[in-house]
Amino acid sequence: MTSFPTLGILGGGQLGKMMAAEAVRLGMGVRLLAPKDAGPMQAYAHATTADWTDPDILRDFATGCTAVTVESEWAPADVLAPVCPEDTALWPSPQTLGWIRHKGVQNDRLAAHDLPLPSYRCCATPDEVRAAGEALGWPLMLKQYEGSYDGYGNRLVERPDEVDEAWNDLAADDGVLAEQCIDFVRELAVQIARRPNGTSVAYPVVHTEQRDHRCHAVVAPAPMADDLAEEAQAIARDAIDAVEGVGLLAVELFETRDGAILVNEIAPRPHNTGHYTIEGCVTSQFENHVRAVLDLPLGATDLVAPYAVMVNVLGQREGTPPRADGWKQALQVPGAHVHIYGKPDVRPHRKMGHVTALGDTATETRTRAEEAAEQIIL
User: Does the CA dihedral 300-243-77-214 come out positive or negative?
Assistant: First the structure.
C-alpha cells in the first residue's frame, strides 16, 4: 500500500503558505518550520516556530517527511543536510542554494556555462569598482552579494565620486558585484520546474514591470516575438541546468534593444513573478514546485486565458495589524482574484498580497487587476 507523501517546508511566509496549500489540495501532509511567526504559516496546524539553526530541531522536523524544501535561499538547508534522514529528500540542494545566494558566485557559475550575462566584475575594494566603471562604462549597477531583495541591496552608481557612499551601504567583507547597466526594452521572467532527473517544463515568458526597483505588475504572455520568447525559455532552462536546480526556480532576464536576451538573476524557489500562474495556468508554479521536489510528474504550464495580469499589493504605512480597507470593494471587481498573505504587520513597500485577473486583451485585463489592487489599503 502506498501512502501519501509528507512535505516539509523551511519557511513560514507567503511562499511557504502557497506551497502548503497545493500540497494539502493534493492530499499530502505538510509541516512548516520557521525561526519566528511569519503570520502566513499559522494557516496550518503543523507549523512550528523554533531555532532552525539547531541540527537536532532540523533532524526532528525532517524525520517522517518524504521531502523537505525551502521557501527562500536563506533557509538553513546546509545545516539540515548532514542530519537529514536518509529516506528524506532535500531540494533544492545546499550546493544549488550556495551557487545562487551569493550573486558573484551565481554570475561566475552561469558564465562558466556560457550563459549570456551583463558584463560584470566582482570587486573587493572601492578602487576596483571605479576600475570596473572605466572598463565597463558608467553608470554601474552595484549589488550586495547576499541578502538583497525587492529593490533593497542594489544601487545605481553614475560617477566615480558616488562609489564610496554606495560601497559603505552595500559592501560585505568580500566586496560587491558591479554590473554593466543594461539599456533594455523590458524586463522578463521565466519559471522553470525541474525534477531530480533533469526533466523540466517552462512557463510562458512574462513581462515584469518595476516601480522603485520593486515588481509592480506581471503581464503574461510578454509582448514579444515568438522566436525571441522561445530563446528566453531556452536560456532559462540552461540557467537552471547550470545550477542543477530542482523544484520551481525563476529566471529574471533582460531583453535588450538590439534583440539579445541576458540573464539578470535566478531565484531558487517559486517567485513573485510567477504568482499569476495560480489562476492563469493549468498548473500553478506552487503545484509544480511540490511535484518536482517529490519527483512526481510535472503538470502542464499553458495559460488558461489569452492574458493574465498580476499586480502586487504593497504596504502603505507602518503599523500592525493590517487593515481590511477596500478589501470588499476589490472583491467586487469582476474576475479579480485577491490574495492577502496574512502578514502580521505592515511596512511601506512590503508585499502584503497580490491581485490577478484573466482576460482576452492585455489592456482590459490590466485595467481590472489594477482597479482591484488600488482598492486595497492595508
Answer: negative
E strand intervals along the chain: 6-10, 29-34, 47-49, 67-70, 89-90, 120-123, 140-143, 154-157, 176-180, 184-194, 200-202, 206-211, 214-220, 247-256, 261-267, 307-314, 336-340, 351-359
The C-alpha atoms of residue 267 and residue 273 are separated, in whole angstroms, by 10
Residue whose C-alpha cell is 530563446? 231
Round to whole Å and give the CA distance between 252 and 230.
Answer: 15
Q: Are 357 and 324 in contact (CB under 8 A)?
A: no
**Whats the size of the chain, residue-wise?**
378
Cβ within 8 Å of residue 91, ≥6 positions away = 67, 68, 69, 196, 246, 247, 292, 293
**Is the CB of residue 83 less than 8 Å from the CB of residue 94?**
no
Quote the CA–CA distance of 293 and 21 in Å, as a whole number.
15
CB atoms under 10 Å from CB of 4, counted, come to 11
* Beta strand residue intervals within 12-129, DSSP E: 29-34, 47-49, 67-70, 89-90, 120-123
The string of pLDDT tens digits covering residues 229-277 is 999 999 999 999 999 999 999 999 999 999 999 999 999 999 999 999 9
